[in-house]
Amino acid sequence: MYPLGILDTNLVFPHQAGSIRMKTEIVVMDNCTSQHIIFGNYYLNIYGIDINNHKDKYFTIGETKRQKASFSNIPQQISLVLSKKDTYKEEFVTNHLVEAQINPSLSLKMRHELIDVLYTYNNAFFSDHEPLGAIKGHEVDITLNIDRPYPPVLRRPAYPASPRAGEALEKHIQELIQLVVLRKVGHNEEFGVTTPVIIAWHNDESRMVGDFRELNTYTVPDRYPIPRIQEPLTQLSRANILECHFGIKIAPSHYQRMMNTIFPTELSEEWLIIYIDYIIIYSHSWSLHLERLERVLHKVSEVNIKVPLNKCNFGFEELKALGHIVSGLSLGIDKNKVAAVLLKPIPQDKKEMLSFLDFSSYYIQHLKDFAIIAKSLYRICNQQTVFERKQERIKAYEKIRKALKEAPLLLMPDWNIPFELYIDAGGDGLGAALHQVQIIDDKPTEGPVFYISRQIKPTESRYGASQMECLCLVWALEKLHYYLDGSVFKVITDCNAVK
């Protein structure tokens, strides 16, 4: 039996959620009577097919529901000779990389190239034997605003624990000691602060939680600046390929400082976004994207950061990040997060109302005239104001809910074409909308890039109409300086005096 040749072909596997098409090479053998095709689990995982060969056999394709699997005449063992590298690589793909989200629309060649890069730097990811990383060259100093001896509230005894909680607590402590996260204090060793811990349960799984409330009261806060969320996201303009890693647990300010120190060049080149515990890599071509991914993973490996694969997305044209749906063309609200808030009843007290307003203001760039609409709601949250649900406030609340539900996609700014700045001033506040006309699907399309608004101050309420419109223009130019500095733009107003 010898090969006659190699045939390039497409294999189609029908499925109710959509057929799977595999572009592959088939070796045509002379005098071969076999009627079976053999695919390794590594190959199947590339296409998002996961076969579970336990007692209750099933398979899944992508995110579809489990389907019954029928296995017949399975041999007990098949001997295949693999190199040690191939064996380790297959084990990495099958047991670890399967936790990550890889864009299913990537070609087979692109998937192999991506897997090669990820396997080369597999020590950058969590593993069973090393679930945590001791980051090299960075230490966290906790500074207290009081001197020794510390007050009794910082030397608190342990909380009483049930036998079940005590057993779980001991298990967590031993695991952390083995990972060199904790160490036992010597008999004569001096220590200044003790904080109790509790065991929290979720679906019969335990988690050790520290009660640091008193410690935080005496801790000097780290004032390292966290970037505003809007500017990093607008860097994704016209990016074709996005990557997202997140889930690294560290104090936000220290984490931001540490990552800015590790990736100064990459951040200055503006293809890497780091915001708290998100790392986003974006590129305009696949080859460039792989180079950038390799650079990031190389540095991550060097400093011993461990990234959880189950929180990673690779090779997508759009992804969820920071409460948004981001792509190279537009920025949208994550509707799943909004839906959870919209299902709640109308706020019953000041605390619930402030919580709703805080959530809504996170998406303020999507909401036209938000500050003006929310004026009456913020007023009843004042300590000197009685919380009453008047008709005016209920209407304002419903208007914000509707705005969240119908929030438009924001265009990613293109600094190569002009902007259009719409301004409008009234008795309740100032509002402005930054627009652009961009070519989308071969058609010129006008859409918003950013909305801003604010309430007017008491002294400004005495301004005339033309003065108010001029105030609105100056304020809008200052607020939107990031977009308009050095750009061509047109101001659009309904005030004849300003025109």
TrEMBL record:
GO molecular function: catalytic activity
A Pfam family the protein falls into: RVT_1
Organism domain of life: Eukaryota
Protein keywords: Multifunctional enzyme
Record bears the keyword Nucleotidyltransferase: no
Occurrences of domain Reverse transcriptase (ranges): 211-325
Statement: the UniProt record of this protein carries the keyword Amino-acid biosynthesis: no
Domain Reverse transcriptase/retrotransposon-derived protein RNase H-like: 391-491
Gene3D superfamilies for this protein: 3.30.70.270, HIV Type 1 Reverse Transcriptase, subunit A, domain 1 (3.10.10.10)
Entries under PANTHER family matching the protein: PROTEIN CBG26694, PROTEIN NYNRIN-LIKE
Identification of the protein by name: Reverse transcriptase/retrotransposon-derived protein RNase H-like domain-containing protein
